[in-house]
Amino acid sequence: MRRAPALLSILAASVSLHAAPPSPAPAPAAPAATTPPPTKPAAKPADSKPAAPKSEAKTPAAPPVKPPPEDAYTQMEMLTRAMEMVRQNYVDESKITYAELVEGALEGMLHRLDPHCEYMGKSLFEDMQREQSDTSEGIGITIALRQNILTIITVREDGPASAAGVLSGDQLVRINDVLTDSVGVAEAMQLLQGKTGEEVRLTVRRPGTKQFLEFKVKHETLAETSVHDPMLLSSKMAGDYKIGYMRISQFNQPTAREMSKALDDLEKQGMKAFVLDLRNNPGGLVDSAVAVCGEFLPEGTVVVTTEGRVASQNPPPFRTPARNGKEPRKYPIAVLINQGSASASELTAGALQDLKRAIIVGTTSFGKGSVQTILPMKNGAAMRLTTAKYYTPSHRTIHEAGVEPNIISALTSEEELRIAKWRASHGTGEAAALELASLGDKQLERAVDSLKGVLVFDAFVAPALAPAAKPLENR
């Protein structure tokens, strides 16, 4: 349904210009043409009547005229009249019930606010509530609207969509037989649902190659592991430096604990620098992301703040938790992000970047830094409404802007597909490290090079900062 543009009310202010009153004419007998006027009388006309304009100039300027407050009744009258015009003139009478028109108006109103706001009809809202209580059965993709196009943001490497060849950034054109040009995120999620073993057909457009591709994907029960491939990188990539690597696919409850244990193991092997891979991470629990930041930051450090329209209703900032008396890990860090890094993963990268604790490498992240609240309605439907925004420690919002890397490095579609296939099936231990070094992952290579530079710099600076040895006294 087309949405009528909002009525803009313009207040025009008229300004009257008044000329200064004329000076009194001189007496006829005065020889004005030959004799110059005395100084004192000449100053009087200038000081008497023009004095009013001088006093007006000293008065402070009037405050700017504010537009009149919005008249809700006038706008509702316009909406009601539009609905009646549609009901009287639209060709298909079955589509113009009041319920249909009001639901269409709600959909348009919320969609116009931002891509994350959405009206959910009664059946859609009920399905969403059931989905939250069920086990995780799906095809392993995360979707969102990007420039009003339904886009696959992340693809789980252990999911069936990844095995079929779907990539992050692919644009959804059709789900089974339903075109997605007029489908919202919640409705698309409903179309993608299914039980284990059921098949869904996806038609996508791949922006990198401009190809239209079709995939048949079967639903599977997906595991909830989130920490993958902790390892020391091969000397083929890291040289003589012991640089660790780990990937977080999403932030759930055990993520920080699993990561802490993996870091302990890598440190026992002599790790001196670390690459944290957050590419294609759709986010998850903000508390979990804050705890991950707490591995590298002092206890009580502000990582994220949440701000809505009413400051008094804002919750306390998210601070790094205690680590049972352990000091934060102090070795150099590089964080990998891309256009599939969203929400909690962006908050992690943004906080470590703001606090000068990590070098960010890759491409600009997705830009999902807002809080959505589900507001149930009396008719059984609900609204998903953006009610607050997240801010990094420097009070930077990532919403609709994303996190911009310190070092920009992009991959082609072919390179992304090669990396996705490796993630879905690869060796373990030293074999995995050798495979990763031979993969041609340019973003990882840039991150490793940056950490090498930091380690080389530290090696030069450390002796200079060490206290000089005292000379031996001659006896």
Automatic annotation (TrEMBL):
Residues 21-40 have a biased composition (Pro residues). GO terms for biological process: proteolysis; signal transduction. The keyword Protease applies. InterPro entries: ClpP/crotonase-like_dom_sf (IPR029045), CtpA/B_N (IPR055210), PDZ (IPR001478), PDZ_6 (IPR041489), PDZ_sf (IPR036034), Peptidase_S41A (IPR004447), Tail-specific_protease (IPR005151). Keywords: Hydrolase, Protease, Serine protease, Signal. Residues 1-19 form the signal peptide. Residues 41-60 have a biased composition (Low complexity). Pfam families: CtpB_N-like, PDZ_6, Peptidase_S41. Residues 18-71 are annotated as: Disordered. It comes from the Bacteria. One of its GO terms (cellular component) is outer membrane-bounded periplasmic space. NCBIfam families: prc. Belongs to the peptidase S41A family. This is Carboxyl-terminal processing protease. It comes from Prosthecobacter vanneervenii. The lineage of its organism: Bacteria, Pseudomonadati, Verrucomicrobiota, Verrucomicrobiia, Verrucomicrobiales.
